[in-house]
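[Meeting: bench + compute handoff]

Bench side (C.D.) handed over the final construct sequence. Compute side (W.E.) agreed to return the predicted structure before the next meeting so the bench team could plan truncations. Sequence as handed over:
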Amino acid sequence: MRLQLVVNPAAGGGRAAKLLPAVQAALGGHDLVVSPTRSLEHADELAAAAVADDRVVVAMGGDGIVGRVAGAVAAAGGVLGVVPGGRGNDFCRSVGIPQDAVAACAVLTSGVETPVDLGYAGGVAFIGIASVGFDSAVQERVLRSRLPLGQLIYLYGSLATVFSWKPATFRCEVDGAPVSVTGWSVAVANSGMYGGGMKLAPTASVTDGLLDVVSTSATSRLTFLRALPKVFKGTHVDEPSVTVRTASTVTLDADRPFRVFADGDPVATLPCQITVQPGALRVLLPR
């Protein structure tokens, strides 16, 4: 196979860089080009050039680089492979790609080319979840943190943010219908998982052509903390404060400024329109 490995060496606090020699060895039988990224914009350029060179573009890093490369590959009409190298690797979890980087390399040769949906927040592609409110406040904290906690950094960020959180009012349109939520957050999910295994939208699918909109209304901090562990099993959606809707177009706004985070990176500010393009991306997935 003709492969181009677009790798973020800083992903996972340097985890991707440490895994790279083993991944290169695992792919040694292929025509392989390795391209470290300098920025998300550089990743766009590398992915587009790889597709033009008739290569399968393999994104290696966290969900941020996967989502960014996915958008560039879809725009260029190419094929994407994914090797996990970040902290969360939630897209891999969602679609069954092994969490072990070397094991994931086997999917590049044995996998099935599968059309999957892409979300777009403010015109920027994402493959996982876009969110505002408490969720984006947690992401802001995670970005600033230098604690060596691995994927537990998201749990730390959630617990630390709870105690300073003040409810916000979110004004949304879900397929044109107005929805107002006062409370914790509104998230728009394509693949359904984030934060290192949190099943925020447990019924979300990357092949159904729809987005799952998960809103959490106001509760006490204690009630929220008691429900928080349930998100790892997806049973938090049974809480009275949680509502799940499906839509193809969602507009988000709020009563105070938030950055919209998608795949762990800030991608837009409010107000923001989020859409889905069904089957926009071809990905090598396990059989």
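W.E. noted at the follow-up: The first strand starts at residue 2 and ends at 7. C.D. will use this when planning the next construct.
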